[in-house]
Amino acid sequence: MKAIIHGDAGLRLGEMPLPKAGKGEVVVAIKTAGLNRRDLYIPDRRGQKGEDLILGSDGAGTIEAVGEGVTQWSVGDEVVINPSLDWREESDTSPEGFRPLGVPDNGTFAEKIVLSAEQIEPRPAHLSWEESACIGLAGLTGYRALVTRGQVKKGDTVFVPGAGSGVVTFIIQFAKAAGARVIVTSRKEDKLKHALKLGADRAIDTNADWEQELKDETIDLVIESVGKATFNRSLGVLKPGGRLVVFGATTDDVVDIDLRALFNNQQEIVGSMMGSREELREMLAFSEKHTIRPVIDRTLPLTDALEGFKMLEDSTQFGKIVYTI
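The structure corresponding to this sequence follows.
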């Protein structure tokens, strides 16, 4: 079968053996798959030298085969893949054994995938196949950061630096559905316009003086994923007693913090990463209730997958990049 492979020969479109369903497993014929920033970073952590592995954490498709003991699914069922392996119940941190799908396990950038029957959910009825492909990782990450860890509530003002990522496009929609006010930043005018169209209440230039721009705002919650370039500026606009949630670091991941300002302001800094199956199901139900859809920048055939990697590396996209298979 065709797949996007990383091995000693680098990242490429190649051939891999067809998977077979073992006990408790299903084979899903992938129709669409979503590209994530994680896919840019994992090739160098792919495991043993010489091993070809399939990238990709997100996908949607139809069940092609079921293994022994699988009774809750049938051939032909339309499903989305849960990219959070072996994390079942909501918890403060991920359990031992948790890992995102896609290296060291074979991922979704292929015609078929085999995985545990526990790792799939019914495809949301309100989403297209393309939208279904990219709600898993980004939607779950955004939901846990905003709702579980951020404890967003109606009337909060949420500040999110960096408006273009797939996770942030979910956070904007989730926060608005929860009754919050949303302010985002970007260096690019087109991304600011897209964010406002998506529902953000304000969109400001990342290079602006945030404290001056936001002097009339009370920022209750910051959701950070940029890193060193914005971290201390985010703390600077967060209200005393406010919470800053970090789910990623697209720039340098080591920052210096003014501890005196932090404890004087009694602010909280909270880490967040992906989430559990319980939270995924909550997120899917919340999305269906509020008709929340992934924002898709580009849809590409699997044969043009490397073009999508280049777009993500250059951060030119607004929202998700999806592969059709």
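DSSP finds ten helices and 18 strands in the chain.
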